[in-house]
Structure formats: structure tokens, C-alpha cells
Amino acid sequence: MTDLCADDLTAIYPKPSPRVIAKARPAVDAHAKKFIEMSPFCVLATSGADGSVDASPRGGGTGFVHVAGPNQLLMPDRSGNNRIDSFRNVVEGSGFVHLLFFVPGIDETLRVGGRGTLSADPDLLASMVEFGKPPRAVLNVAVSEVYFHCGKALMRSKLWSPDVKVQRSVMPSISQVIHDQTSLGEPEGQDVVEARYKTQL
């Protein structure tokens, strides 16, 4: 297998149309704001000081990421595994972040890029109580680029179609998987894992 170079890419892929280039906007407009306010889920991508890249799922109630202005998003951080890879990248790495927003039932996605900083300001945390508790920190994104992705990827995957939904029972619980991989902790069934999740949202 031969790796492609930049010239190979130019030969394989035609230039994007002017419209595709122009759709990248410098701020959150009315359409992007509406999409973010409908979104309960996004993927956060960050880059580390060593050039590594992290992508992490983030979710909450509909509109859990707050549009504070055309060039500012505020994303509360909820309970997780405490690895904080993304946040270490924000404070120790380039600070550049990208968010990919999903809205269930809509095949298009929204990509937002900018530079992130973190805050644990008590008043800010208190303003973002969800699931009965404040976040531990808030990611503040200074937005510099916003654009919608076409729906082809989600259409190909049939992501929202009940026809491709699998039964949870086809995979062991995450507790069992990690036990098999590490021999650490005690394996738990899916019902136990889900019950614990509900107390930690």
C-alpha cells in the first residue's frame, strides 16, 4: 500500500465549489444558533501539546451548549471518567477546539471551531445546573468558524433509522468489557451499569 501525497489528493479530488468554501462562516448565525439549541449531543475534538488529537462525546438536555453570542459558546462539563484528556489539551495544548453537533432526526450536522478556555467561576457554574447539580467546569469557546455538513454521511449510515438499531444485548456491558481488558474491578451486568449511570448524570 502506497501512502498518498498532496499532489495525489489534488489529482483524485476536484476543487470544492465556491459555495462550499463560502458556507464556512466566521460566527454563529440564526440557523446555526437554532441547530445548537436543538442539539442534545456533540463531539468535542481537541489537540494536545504533542500533536495528539482527542475526540470526546458530550451530551445533555436539548440545547445544553449555550450560545452566549455570535462568537461565544459555553459548554458545561458533566460527570465522566475524570481522565480530562480534552481539558488538558485545552489548557496545555493548542487550545483549538472543534465541536460537531447532532440533532436526532436531522441528517445534516454543524461544525463549530474556535479557541477554548476553561472557567470554574461559581456564578457561571450555578447558572448551568442540570440533572440537579452544577457542572464542574465550563468550556468557553471563542468561535472563529461555523459551517453545516451535508447529510450524506448520516444518510449512508442510516443513523436515525430504527431499521439499523441494534439490541443492547449484542454487546457485553462496558463494565464487563473493561474487566476483560484490564482484569480490574468487578464485572457488572448492563442493568447495574445503567442504574449507576442514572445516579451520576
Automatic annotation (TrEMBL):
Gene3D superfamilies for the chain: Electron Transport, Fmn-binding Protein, Chain A
Stretches that traverse the bilayer: none
Positions of the Pyridoxamine 5'-phosphate oxidase N-terminal domain: 29-150
Coiled coil: none
Stored SUPFAM superfamilies: FMN-binding split barrel
Pfam families: PNPOx_N
InterPro entries in the cross-refs: Pyridox_Oxase_FMN-dep, Pyridox_Oxase_N, Split_barrel_FMN-bd
Signal peptide (UniProt feature, chain positions): none
Protein name (Swiss-Prot/TrEMBL): Pyridoxamine 5'-phosphate oxidase N-terminal domain-containing protein
Organism: Bradyrhizobium neotropicale
